[in-house]
Amino acid sequence: MGLFGSLFRKDKAPLKTHKIKVEGTMTSPSVSPELVKADKLLKEATTKKKSGDINGAIKALRDSYKILNENSMLYSIQTYLRLPLYLQEAGKSDEAWSEFNRLSMWVNTKPRYSPEVTPMELSIIWDKMRLYLQRENKNDYAVQFAVWSYLSCAVGLYMQKREDELETYKAETNIKKALKPSLHKADKEFLTDRLVRIILDSLNNLPVVDYEEIAKTVQEEMKLNSK
Fold first, then answer.
1. Burial class, 68, CB count within 10 angstroms (exposed 0-12 / middle 13-18 / buried 19+)
2. What share of the chain is helix, strand, coil (3-state, %, to 5)?
3. N or C: which end of the chain has fewer CB within 10 A?
């Protein structure tokens, strides 16, 4: 599970927050027969998952995504995050991780890419990757994605000119609160102040964030302080 290589743009992006329900389907209804079929498949995936047929649910998702290919902007990123989560639940961890990486690159590519929305979508994706890593007991690595997710959301707020929210977001108490679950899980809460400083330094340079350099710095901190 290495870094993403040439994943990042030099520009920016945004939308909502991390706490999402991943079982959602369409963001808006459509009279298109193809999209009606895709929506039925998404609902079928939910039903199959609830009944314990996780492989059937995965197939239904993939079939729906094939139909959605030309209409992806009608659907939120949560719709597409269902697949890696289902794959992990099915014990297909490598496939799940590959899908997370694919989504990270996909939202950075036109026509999906938007300087006002992509950072928020990345923030959501990276938060789900954090949770994935924690379920895989890779708690140190998960901290990197907690940091990335927080910063990407900040870029989104900046690009959307949500200045009041951004100022609140920059508060040290809020940064510490966001990092606490991941650092606690990794048994590294003593690194809180150091990571807060890393985040604050980046927040002072918005909208430019050097994610790869931050990843290296965070990983070095985690390794140096491993038990």
1. buried
2. 70, 0, 30
3. C
* 3 state SS of 210: coil
Quick one: average pLDDT of 144-157?
A: 98
Query: Hey, where are the domains in the chain?
Result: 76-224
Compute the residue count for the chain: 227
Q: Taking 60 as the threshold, does the pLDDT of residue 9 lie above it? A: no
Mean pLDDT of 72-94: 94
Q: How many CA atoms, within 13 angstroms, populate the side-chain half-sphere of residue 13?
A: 21
User: What is the CATH topology of the domain spanning 76-224?
Assistant: 1.25.40
Q: Are 10 and 113 in contact (CB under 8 A)?
A: no
DSSP 31-95: --HHHHHHHHHHHHHHHHHHTT-HHHHHHHHHHHHHHHGGGGGGS-HHHHHHHHHHHHHTT-HHH
CB-based contact 121:149 (threshold 8 Å): no
Q: What is the pLDDT of residue 7?
A: 46
Report the C-alpha gap between 20 and 161 in whole angstroms.
23
Residue type, 181: P
**Are 136 and 130 spatial neighbours (Cβ–Cβ below 8 Å)?**
no
DSSP code of 209?
-
d(CA 204, CA 170): 9
State the pLDDT at residue 74. 79
